[in-house]
Amino acid sequence: MVQIKKKKGRDAKIPDAGMSDIVFLLLLFFLVSTTIDVDTGIGLSLPEYIPPEEQVFVPLSKDRLAALNINENGDVLLDGKVIAIPQIQETLIPRIESKIDLPKNKKLVISVKTARKTNYNLYIQALDQIKGAYATVRKAYAQTHFGKKLYELDKEENKELKNKIPIIISIAEPERIK
Amino acid sequence: MKFEKKRSSVKQEIPTSSMPDIIFMLLLFFMVATTLKEVEVYVKYRLPEAKAIEKIENKRLISYIWVGKSGRIQLNDAIVQVGDIQDIMYKKRTELPNVIVSLRIDKGSDMGIVNDIQQALRKADARRINYSAMLKQ
Question: What does pTM read for this prediction?
Answer without folding.
Answer: 0.73
